[in-house]
Amino acid sequence: MPLSSTDWERLSLPAPIPELVVRPTTTQLFMFSAATWNRHHVHYDKDAALAEGLPGVVVHRALLGNFLARLLTEWVGDPGAVAELSWKVSQSALPGRDLHCDGEVVALEGVGAERRARCELRIRDADGRDIASGQALLRVG
Amino acid sequence: MNPDPVPAAARALIGVRKVRRCEVTRRDILRFAQAIGATDPLHFDEAYARGTRYGTIVAPPLFCQTLTYEDAPPGRLPPDGSPLEIAVPIPAQRAVGGGSDYVVHRLVRAGETITVTTELKDIVVKHGRSGLLYLVVVETRFDDAGGAPVACETATYIKRM
Question: Which residue, of B2, B63, B93, B126, has the fewest CB within 10 Å?
Fold first, then answer.
């Protein structure tokens, strides 16, 4: 069941968002490249990626954003909950390794149909290094 | 005064808009959901979706990313295959994704035609550890057939020598 407006108002802030762990594979990177028609070789050609100084083929900026979107929508139970999502990549993420996505709701703001939950988000690798940080506004109720 | 590290030919592209129209199919939505690992039946099960407040299949929130890049054949792409949208004449080729600001007005439904408007918003120069970094900022607006906004993404790409 999606979170109800009552559930939101009862949250004790900051409220933790349950962690989502994903392990993107090279197959998933390929599928995301295909689905978004992204033909940049750093996402599928290891030699080319290494030649550019990257540690290997890297997870797309856009796919990292989708992991944060899934963190939010799978918690809330509604893909329509995301009103705004911003993220910044701080370090390349590699396929075949766990990514830990989590965050917290830090504020409830606005009224009525404009009521929003402000969230702080992050993605870290298995060693706790920052991969990306983000912010979101969720539609409440 | 130091000369502008952004060539005039690149600066001239700021503010230029390109417009395309794209039809969205159920299969596009299903494939995007599979690519991001989303398993919500709202993205592929019409009977299930009919019983929800959406009434039909809807796409994941960042779905319009599938419409962002121009449908150009390989011969028109830069040698590294990086997006044409960031192929600006600056002395930097290697690109990585930096960040994104994505606004979702509503979820996309199958069968819609989306108007995609791409605009180079800015080129910002920064001094990195290994030389100049060019932050290429591209805004992509997604509007529905009635002209109402569906989503807007402002993406920043980092380009180096």
Answer: B2
